[in-house]
Design goal:
With 207 residues, this protein is α+β, with helices and mostly antiparallel strands. 36% of the residues lie in helices and 37% in strands. Strand 4 and strand 5 form a beta hairpin. The protein has 4 helices and 8 strands. 27% of the residues are buried.
């Protein structure tokens, strides 16, 4: 094979790879646009970025009583059953009000992220906090704080998190924001579904 043929083949491969990643990027942008909002699961939102640190604040109103919402949020090991973005939520250790989990999370069509997460429950203040123990691309910490509605039929979920990138992300901030929004919305949908299933199960008459 002569030199010109080799160069031609290399050019074809490079163009093909470039076209593939270009197609992937276009898909990513389309997905990000879909999750740009608004979404009924988010009634308040604030996102700030300072260098490698991103702070998120989302508020959601879930039409399920607080106890049921808190129960679901405090079983993060069931995340892969209820939340579309979580592909693995393996309980490694449970001790008192602390749980350690291995978790795999995917948002949009971004690469799968691997975490070891610690969750802590403060039942007195209806707070569930979390932080990364091990992670690939970012360190993450945050919390869910729950508040019942006056009639006790609904729950306000106040979510705050702070993440610090370990590596420079090759995506625009709008894509990252949409990925975070997708995860939160799907989490709230999963929480509501899980809470309703628990309520239906507890209300069912014994066989």
């Amino acid at each position: 094979m002569n030199k010109n043929v080799i160069i031609g083949l290399v050019a074809v491969v490079v163009v093909g790879v470039g076209g593939f990643f270009g197609y992937q990027y276009m898909q990513l942008q389309a997905q990000a646009k879909k999750w740009a909002g608004p979404h009924k699961e988010i009634v308040e939102e604030k996102v700030t970025k300072d260098g490698a640190v991103t702070t998120l604040h989302f508020v959601s109103l879930v039409d399920v009583p607080l106890a049921a919402v808190e129960n679901v949020l405090w079983t993060p090991e069931r995340g892969q059953e209820m939340i579309e973005n979580i592909t693995l939520s393996k309980l490694l250790k449970s001790e008192g009000n602390t749980k350690l989990l291995e978790m795999n999370v995917r948002a949009l069509n971004l690469p799968l992220q691997f975490y070891t997460m610690q969750f802590t429950h403060d039942p007195e203040h209806h707070r569930i906090s979390f932080k990364t123990v091990e992670s690939q691309a970012q360190d993450l910490e945050g919390e869910y704080v729950l508040e019942p509605s006056p009639d006790g039929k609904s729950t306000r979920v106040d979510y705050t998190s702070k993440s610090k990138d370990k590596i420079a992300l090759p995506f625009p901030q709008s894509v990252v924001d949409s990925a975070n929004r997708e995860i939160f919305v799907n989490t709230m949908r999963g929480v509501k579904k899980g809470a309703q299933q628990n309520a239906a199960g507890s209300a069912a008459p014994p066989a």
